[in-house]
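--- STAGE predict ---
source: upstream dedup step, 1 unique chain passed
mode: sequence only
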Amino acid sequence: MPFVEIEASEPETPAEETAFAEADLAQLRALVAFAFDALHVSDRTEASVALVGEAEMEELHLRWMDLAGPTDVMSFPMDEMRPGSPDQPAEGTLGDIAVCPTVASRQAQAAGHSTADELCLLTVHGILHCLGYDHGTRDEEKEMFALQRGILEEFLGHAAPVETRH
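--- STAGE serialize ---
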């Protein structure tokens, strides 16, 4: 199993308490291991997933993207890794992924699926960004979202949650 640090900030509002309560850290840790396997990333690879409140996510969003307001997920790649192959798994430090459960909860409610499923979607989305995938063009989005859906459907055992497009 890969070295995955998953931590959650202390919720600061009742809405954050509710959203954070729906986060299953063991499920997210298992999902990261599953995604690494699907993407041929070595189990010696390190990654960090932080569940953060809206204020912290807003700070990160403003500092790194120069955009106001909290967002759902941000990725901070470390070793500029790419997916490996069955014969040569990728290895290194994937990077840090920040996920905001409160934003995830609102998006899940609007899309008609659970917050837990949305947190899984955002975690896989963050992993893919750390591996160099993007959705800046229609072709990139098609490739990234198809891969994301495939990983989620296999892991969750049901249809993948619908992506929120910003």
